[in-house]
Write a structure and sequence with these properties.
- It contains 8 helices and 7 strands, in the order αβαβααβαβαβαβαβ.
- The chain is an alpha/beta fold.
- Strands 1, 2, 3, 4, 5, 6 and 7 form a 7-stranded parallel β-sheet that branches.
- The longest helix is centred in the last third of the chain and has 18 residues.
- It is globular, with a radius of gyration of 16 Å.
- The protein binds zinc ion.
- Zinc ion (ZN) binds next to loops.
């Protein structure tokens, strides 16, 4: 079974990471985030979809994709969304050595700096965290995890089952993860408009992190 919702104990064990946003009584904010892009056509689809629902979102970009698709990053920012660091090469914290991981994080940071783009923080690829990320990087930059993982990259999941899980779990303050990647697109293209529509019906407002 795919676990969409982070069990409540995990954020309690790892409080230096951002798992959700605190909500006050009046806030209906939810946070749509997109990892692994920018990807030609797919990120453009996401941008069109967000515009249709007047939603704002955050894109955790892979540095090498930013280098290859700078015009898409410009479109993301021009549409009022924001971007964050997702490493240069989608580094896996459980496989990279500490020095290599830092270099991959910094290489992505450098790409943003060269383009004069402000990164809002870091999302570790695969959500994998090691002691360096948890104890040191978290002191330098916010590290954004999530509340609800769509699993849109998982071919074994149907779009219908993801939508159903979203409707069960999304609440004000939730951080949702999608992927603007080729792999996720068969599910993303169905799930994204459906969950944006659901949020609209509930009066939840997709906002910047
Ligand atoms: Zn990723």
């Amino acid at each position: 079974m795919f676990i969409h919702q982070i069990p409540r104990i995990v954020p309690n064990l790892l409080p230096k990471l951002v798992w959700s946003r605190p909500v006050n009584e009046n806030s209906q904010a939810v946070y749509f985030t997109f990892d692994d892009g920018p990807t030609p056509e797919i990120t453009n689809f996401v941008l069109d979809c967000l515009a249709e629902f007047e939603a704002k979102a955050t894109f955790f970009c892979i540095g090498k994709n930013v280098v290859n698709n700078p015009e898409i990053v410009s479109d993301i920012l021009a549409s009022g969304h924001q971007v964050g660091n997702h490493t240069m090469n989608h580094a896996n914290a459980w496989k990279y050595g500490q020095e290599g991981y830092i270099q991959d994080y910094l290489a992505c940071e450098k790409v943003f700096n060269h383009m004069n783009i402000k990164s809002i923080g870091f999302r570790p690829p695969y959500g994998r965290v090691n002691s360096y990320i948890y104890h040191q990087l978290s002191g330098i930059t916010p590290i954004f995890m999530w509340t609800f993982l769509t699993g849109d990259y998982n071919q074994d999941l149907s779009a219908h089952s993801i939508i159903k899980a979203g409707i069960r779990h999304i609440k004000p303050g939730s951080i949702l993860v999608f992927h603007d990647s080729v792999k996720a697109f068969p599910r993303l293209k169905v799930v994204l408009p459906a969950l944006l529509d659901y949020c609209l019906q509930q009066n939840y407002k997709p906002e910047l992190l």
